[in-house]
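Q&A log
Question type: sequence-to-structure
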Amino acid sequence: MGFIYSYTLQYQTHRNMKPKYLLLTLTILLLQHINAQEYNPTAVEGAHWVIQFDEMATIQPVDGLWEYFASGDTIVNALTYKKILKRDLVVTQNGPPFEAEEEYELFGLIRDDTLNKKVYAINLQENYNYCPVNEEYLLFDFSLNVGDTISLCIHPDFFDFVIQNITTSTILGFTTQVFEGEESLYEGMGSNYGLFEDMFAPFKKNSRYVYSTFLYYYCRETPCNLFVSTEYHFETKSPKIFPNPFSYSTT
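Response status: OK
Response body:
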């Protein structure tokens, strides 16, 4: 009887624990799914970035305006990138709607590594920053934790950029994760300086900025109300990249 009772008790205990293990497993999978869904991708079809250029010596706050527009996909080295078009906008101090000054040109490519929460880019035009041209580089890293030091080519290593706080905030109408330090990174959007722009503004001797760029306006779909016309008449061709696949650099 003792053996039968012991076996029955073990069987009942094992049977009662099954739902608990199943519930725990489902909870872990659900949390992993939620965590994966929390990431806001940057390479979103139809997204627009309006960048403000401010030359501090002038009275007006806006001395230049340009726009990036995510439209269409292309494949490089078996990886899918979103094509980023660029055009200059007519300078205005009044805000949107903005008027185009020229046609779109293909500027670069970006892609999300969603699993690792990173954004990679290929610049196809010289951008006067510290990032390479015609080769892939890490544009943004949203896997960082508080206390981590950022290491990106758009942030020159003149001074450290340590993540001091990570919050959920609404930036330019878009709610996302904000990585705060001396500067700010916006998951899914870019930085407070723009999309491809250097996260650094040169100083004069009197500690005043010489010039700086800012992420001025942003919308995550097309059409949006930032522009005079919602009709987009442009023609782009898939970039001819060689060698393809490439290992370190491409043309």
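Response note: The mean pLDDT is 82.
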